[in-house]
Structure formats: C-alpha cells, structure tokens
Amino acid sequence: MKYLDEYRDPKLARLVLDKIFESVSRPWSIMEICGGQTHSLVKNGILEILPKEITMIHGPGCPVCVTPINLIDKAILLAENANVILCSFGDMVRVPGSRKSLLQSKSEGSDIRIVYSPLEAVKLASQNPDKEVVFFAVGFETTAPTNALSVVQAAKMGLANYSILTSHVLVPPALNALLSDPESTIDGVLAAGHVCTVMGFKEYYPIAKKYKTPIVITGFEPVDLLQGILTTIEMLENQRFDVINEYGRVVEKEGNPHAMAIINEAFEVSDRKWRGVGNIDNSGYQLREKYQNYDADLKFAIKMNEVEENAECIAGSIMKGQKKPIDCIHFGKKCNPENPLGAPMVSSEGACAAYYHFSHSLFQNVS
Ligand code: SF4
Options 3.30.1180.10, 1.10.1200.10, 3.40.50.11750, 1.20.140.10; which CATH number does 5-59+171-239 get? Predict the structure, then answer.
C-alpha cells in the first residue's frame, strides 16, 4: 500500500537506525507526545534497538487518559438518566471513573452507544426526538473538527435534543507546561503528525526557541519514527533548536484551513484540567456562546465534587515523562487490561497498555 508499506520496510528502517547510531555522541531524552506513537515505538520493538544513549519519554498524548475522572463520573451520571442516550468512542467506555466505568454502567442498563463518529450521534438524536442524545466529545485537535461539525450540523437541523460533553485538549499549551517544568528532562520532542495535519505547526516555533528544544513533526510508522528520532538527534548534536516537518506527505505548515474553520465556528479556547497533569491555561476547547444550547454541561447542570485519583496509580508521573509503566508496582499484576486501575492500561493510546501488549522486535528477521 503506497504511503504505508514503504514506511514499514525493515531494510529502510535499518538504514535510518544505522544513521542514528552514527549521529549520537552523548545521552539525549526525546519525548514522543502522542500515545499512538508510543504504541508504534513499543509494538515495533524500536525502544529495544535504539542506541543506549537515547531515552524515549512517553508524553501525555492519550486523550482518554487525560480526561478528568469527575468528567467520566458525570458521563456515567448522565447515562443513568433514563431519558438520555449517551454516545462515546469505544476507547472511553472501559476507562475507570471513581466508582465504575461507562461499560459497567451499560451492563447495569444505561443506554450507552459506541459510535465511530459524532455524526452518528446526531443521526440518533434525529431518530429519537423523545430522548436527549449526548456525545462524550473527548480528544485532541484531531477529533475537534468532527465534534464541532456535529454541533453545527445539529443546529442546522434544528435539533434541540443533541448536546456534547466536552473534554477537548490542545497540544502546544501542554508542551509549554511540560517544558517549563523545572524537573523536565526533555531534550527534544517528536510532535504528533495527525494533530499538525489539522492545525499546522506554526505554534511550535516559539516553543522550540524558548526552551531550546528541537521539535520534529513525525508520523506513526516505524520508518517515520526512526526518521523523527534521527532528525531530532542531528539537531541536538548541532545545537539547532528549530522545527522540522518529517511528515511532509500529510502535514502542511498552515494545517487544514477547512478543519480549523469548523473548529473556530463552534469552539473557543478555554482553560482545561488534564487528568494526572493538572490545570493548564488555554489548553482546551469549550463551545462558543452561540452554541451553548448544545453544551451538555450547561443543559444538565450536573454539579460534581472534585474526586481523588486512585492513589495506587502513577499515571500522572508517566504522562509527565517522569516514570515508565514498568516503574509502577501494579503493572501487569494488580493492574491489567481486565482490571485496570488507571486509564493508560485500557486506552488504545495508553502507555501502560502499549507495554502490556507488545514486546516483539521489528528487526529480528533483517540480516
Ligand atoms: S500500570 Fe495501571 S496502576 Fe500503574 S500507572 Fe499504569 S494504569 Fe496506573
């Protein structure tokens, strides 16, 4: 398959890996922002074959993992309302809230539907005029366009029984927060290619300059990731603190103007709390005033108290890059995909799930 197979070619990957070995002269720590990149690094055995000088730090780019626990509780409370159909992406339903997960709530009788697009939820609202349909709108910049579109579409259709429970987060403010942490050990960053496909990467230049940290826009296939690491290492070794796009087959500097226009139509930037990380100024989206009728938070006005995280789970330290999943004493024992103590063990982009599921190497059959 063009644009995919060539980026999975083991011989090409070996060539790039050899260049990494030639280029590195001292220890460097590189953070991959996105949980999809973490999964690809682990699944393809890349962590095991990098030079010992390179440490990959796994960032907070798992949208399900950073959704606050009290918002999950709120979604469950909404789903337990007999007049509500709650729609969610599949990843979200197994994430533990403080009492239970959406999946457990569904098994107890709540009407929770797994959808592949928020537009399916809009359709459900039009087919069920006597019910309130709520979409759990979770994600980074990547899912924001379709979530925004669902609200605009519902407004155009005059649907009064559709709303979204929003937990949208943004990468650049989070990166700023991570790099400004005095305890940060991040030398270079692999930025998430799909986020930049939507938003472009102009916002990264001042961050790279301010923190003297090279940022490389990187894709998700093994050769993409190795190339992203190589370019980061070459910049670090040459003390070059710039932004380079290594996902040029998909990403434009200006992003996707149509996607950004629909985001801007429905959403405005707001402060946002990240599970395990804390509050980050201007790091999320909320619906604009003209679409407030579609805001489930306002429509149902459910007040939630702050909820304590499970003290046994160190997901916050993992998402800040301070610890690895294998540093958690419960990894693979008390915490596993069947009985998760934290979101990173069940999300398809969670670092703990990546470590739990994958361990084989991409290079074992290459001579
Ligand atoms: S292994 Fe489980 S308990 Fe430990 S950090 Fe990961 S999700 Fe939390």
Answer: 3.40.50.11750
